[in-house]
Amino acid sequence: MPATFELERDLIAQGLWPVAGVDEVGRGPLAGPVCVAAVILDRDNLPQGLDDSKKLTAKRRAALAEEIYASALAISVVMAPAAEVDALNIRGATLKAMARAAAALALPPAFALIDGRDAPKLVCPARAVIHGDAISMSIAAASIVAKVARDRLMARLDRIYPGYGFAGHAGYGTPAHLAALRQHGPCPEHRRSFAPVRALSAS
């Protein structure tokens, strides 16, 4: 069942509007940034079929991303690069990027719904929602925007650093990616603090 706007409507009934959805993509990969998106949907013009980006095909995600950009009241996308992940750890880099994404919205949110267990300190009050990208339309929209943005970036990085297959696996630790790492060693986009990369860097 697609995500709904019920959490947002409950907040609106409390006088809290605009409501932003915030989600990240890319916590697990060995390479590339963590991408965070924040989205404020137009409550009178909601795209249909919004859901957790992982449940959607690439074609459907791209189409929904276009709809979101065409109809949303505000969107921001923030990347936390591999060096920031290494410096802060993955959780710290993700939470910091979420704060930047909320602050970057052209329309200041009155409240934010955040996917996951952690609600970082933002420019507004916030609530963490476990599996929020499958529950809240605003979080689902953010997950789609973040996923499409990160996948497109990884396709560009594939051209800059050929041989790793970034366009195919988006930096995740697939057998092909691990084989390329052993053959070529890490590139500047690899996260040195992640065990498979760290092991190769130390050898």
From TrEMBL:
Q: Name the predominant localization.
A: cytoplasm
**Note on cofactor:** Manganese or magnesium. Binds 1 divalent metal ion per monomer in the absence of substrate. May bind a second metal ion after substrate binding.
Instruction: Give a yes or no for keyword Transferase in this entry.
Output: no
Q: So what does this thing catalyse?
A: Endonucleolytic cleavage to 5'-phosphomonoester
Annotated residues that bind a divalent metal cation are located at D23, E24, D115
The record's similarity note reads:
Belongs to the RNase HII family.
Name-wise, this protein is Ribonuclease HII
Provide the species name. Answer: Rhodoblastus sphagnicola
This chain is encoded by the gene named: rnhB
